[in-house]
Task: inverse folding
């Protein structure tokens, strides 16, 4: 199975930056799709950014222009660079792996991002 581990979360003041990392290992198919989601307690989990071979990159309107998703295939690592952070960006950020046929998913444990006013 695919294993996913996120890191890089923390506490930052509004306007600051963080870079999240997502390391994938195991039975990884290529090409594949990777995505970042976030969820605050009691809230819906929302898609933040998505990257795939067929469709390229996608960003939620709320983060467009501030966040950048990228990947290093050599290291099987996906990144989320977050700039100009806002308090509403606060939440647990999850990395998701998706197989080419969209039948296999793998989620990381999540990393907490807290943005103070």
Result:
């Amino acid at each position: 199975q695919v294993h996913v581990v996120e890191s890089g979360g923390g506490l930052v003041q509004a306007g600051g930056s963080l870079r999240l990392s997502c390391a994938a290992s195991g039975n990884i198919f290529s090409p594949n799709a990777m995505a970042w989601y976030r969820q605050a307690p009691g809230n819906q989990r929302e898609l933040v950014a998505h990257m795939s071979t067929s469709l390229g990159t996608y960003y939620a309107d709320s983060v467009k222009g501030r966040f950048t998703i990228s990947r290093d295939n050599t290291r099987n690592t996906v990144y989320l660079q977050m700039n100009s952070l806002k308090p509403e960006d606060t939440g647990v950020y999850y990395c998701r792996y998706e197989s080419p046929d969209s039948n296999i998913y793998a989620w990381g444990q999540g990393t907490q991002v807290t943005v103070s006013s």
